[in-house]
Amino acid sequence: MQILQITDPHLYGSATGRLRGVETDSSLRAALDDAIARVPDYAAMLVTGDLVQDDISGYLRFRSYFGNIKKPVLCIPGNHDEPEAMRKELNGAPFEICGTHEIGDWMFIMLDSYNPGHVGGHLSKNELARLDNSLTGSRKHAMVCLHHHPIPMGSRWLDGVGLAEAHEFWRIIDAHTHVRAVVWGHVHQAFEGHRGDVRMFATPSTGAQFLPKSDRYAVDSRPPAYRSFELHADGRIDSRVHWVESSQMRQTAS
Question: What domain count does the chain have?
Fold first, then answer.
């Protein structure tokens, strides 16, 4: 089963809105076009937060690009989102906000780590309980998705705005042996690692990237990107980050 992950598009209400030197509208469209062309038989799309850049009119642009997709578009809020507006504007198929979703031999638990008034993330007691209950209620292979990073990324400024009290999150994950992966956005860079048998994945933004391992805020020169997953019936995972070069964005914008 093929799954696509798009994260941190940071859309504005205007198509010409730019963030960190990148026109986020055209870079998202280039990434989305490339993803669907490269993996046309995907089963679902994961959108792991910061759909907009503090501009609720950006959800209308998001809907215009994703609304005709015939596969589930599983979304969670990031720190630049407005969850109430997000739920209102992305109400109905193909959009599903948070929740737990089963597809084939896998389930996807989409967690809300939005923390009002804070850049960093937090999982409420209710959200942690939902995670635990979802994992207890099904033995399918589980992929758990959230916006904020639950481990240090080795970047002092960025690790100050990760998931607060991540030990509570990992206590639940460690108690369920059928969790195969934890996936996040927010960090605007690629990462793959392990925690025991659990695979961990961070995915770059469809816009600008952060410089890895930097103590101070710094923007990387790497292009927009997205990630594809191949999820096997036995729980194995193959994954790849796909970088979208500037020539593809120029063609999309023309």
Answer: 1
Q: Which of the four pLDDT bands, split at 50, 70 and 90, describes residue 253?
A: very low
Residues forming a β-bridge with 219: 210
DSSP conformation class of 163: B
Report d(CA 234, CA 106) in Å as an integer.
Answer: 10
Domain that holds residue 155: 2-253
Closest CA to 201 of 127, 164, 149: 149
pLDDT digits (tens, 9 = 90+) for 153-165: 999 999 999 999 9
**CATH number of the domain bearing residue 89:** 3.60.21.10
Q: What is the Cα–Cα distance from 185 to 191, expressed in whole angstroms?
A: 10
pTM of model > 0.90: yes
Q: Per-residue b/e over 93-128, b at no fewer than 16 CB within 10 Å?
A: ebbbbbebbebeebbbbbbbbbbeeeebbbbeeebb
211 secondary structure, DSSP code: P
For residues 189 and 157, is the Cβ–Cβ distance under 8 A? no
Phi-psi region of 127 (alpha: psi -120 to 50; beta: other; left: phi over 0): alpha
CA distance linking residue 222 with residue 189, whole number of Å:
9
pLDDT for the residue numbered 21: 87
- Give the rounded distance of the alpha carbon of 16 from its chain centre: 23
d(CA 49, CA 62): 12
What's the length of the chain?
A: 254
Per-residue confidence at 246, pLDDT binned at 50, 70, 90? low
